[in-house]
Amino acid sequence: MRLVWTIKYALAAGIMALPTAAFAEAVKISYLTHWAPETVALLEEAATEYAKTNPDVAVTVRAVPFGDLLTTLRSQGGGADGATIAGIYDLWLPELARDKLVAPAPETVATEVKGAWPAGVVSAASVGGTLYGIPNEIDVYALNYNKALFAEAGISGPPKTWDEFKDAAAKLTKKDAGQQGFGMINSWAAGVVHPFSSLLVSNGGDLVTDGKPMLDSKAAGETFQLYEDLIKAGSSDPAMATADANTTGPFLDNFVSGKTGMIIMANWWESALKTGMGEKFSNIATAPIPVGPSGDKPRSISYSWMTVVNAGAGEAEQKAAWDFLAWLNGAKSGPNGSSAMANILMSMGILPSRTSDVDAFKDKLGSEFLSGYVSVLADAKPFPVVLGGQEFSESLQQTIEALQYGKVSAKDAQTNAQTDAVSILERAAK
């Protein structure tokens, strides 16, 4: 969409005199995202609103599938032909900043972000203390469960401990009916690693501490063992677990159709559930991650997304990009006292990360589905944003999948995961 005022438009509107800037060619900036068409349309609507007071900036939006997003950013590099703005997963930031593909935020933007966002979210958008973008969504994990299946199995409420979790999974499993108690994910790195990691931190463990992998800890060993126990008990079937970043495939289908009793999943997939389940969505509730034997309270892994600016763009384009992003994420740019970005995120069931946006949407965030996620925000642990983070995640995915399919024992999976993680992070840090 081109958002440019022209002389013809101005004359047609009856404007007798225009500022000099209105006659100059608009500064053109582009925004690269992975959002679906209906969400892209909302972003374009926001850009249209911005253009009402900024007619000298033309914003275009381009979308690519999530799986192509990082490749697109890297293939275009930091050159002037690349997108001016891009939405990125915070795990990618250290490499993009190291390779000088993204620009540090101007001081005015950095000051605003540090004062209006939680410290942990700001940290995930920074490298070496330098802020590189504006955070938008934050995602956490919670237990999703089917209340109708729980009632059929005689289970009164969501499990709070791992023992209760394994017991509920066993009761929900009906092999002759093709029903599993707990649904794992395979074939998608974040989908495999994040639920496992949420159970790990709810067991008192960590993935990485001070840049060092911690997969050789007692807490990690117990988490690998939990997966092996669920698989050996028949409570989780890897053949029902395939998914991708859009959650299409057996993982979603089996939960939607009532063939899976429990899953661990992020808040953003609310829209997929609603679309797939219709009226039966009311059967779904959320609860904190069950606490493991070495844990003290329910915890979750969190990760965030942010918008960054191409370091290779021209000076005028970079300035226009930061100005647009500051408006898009600014307080009260949206229709209900929130930011325009938060309004877009909430349309997808995604939690906004700006503090004032959480307040603006407190009623909707109190729904039966989203309240389970909001309740774990305070104790969530950010997925480690380190050099080599993406490779680390993909390697851990492969190890967990090998465990799911019975190719390795829990003990061997732990050893392999730690060995690979040490090698990857040490190599990345050089």
UniProtKB/TrEMBL annotation:
Keyword field contains Signal: yes
Domain of life: Bacteria
UniProt entry keywords in alphabetical sequence: Periplasm, Signal, Transport
Subcellular localization, as worded in the UniProt entry: Periplasm
Signal peptide: 1-24
Keyword Transferase: no
Name the UniProt record assigns to this protein: Extracellular solute-binding protein
Organism: Mesorhizobium zhangyense
Lineage, highest ranks first: Bacteria, Pseudomonadati, Pseudomonadota, Alphaproteobacteria, Hyphomicrobiales
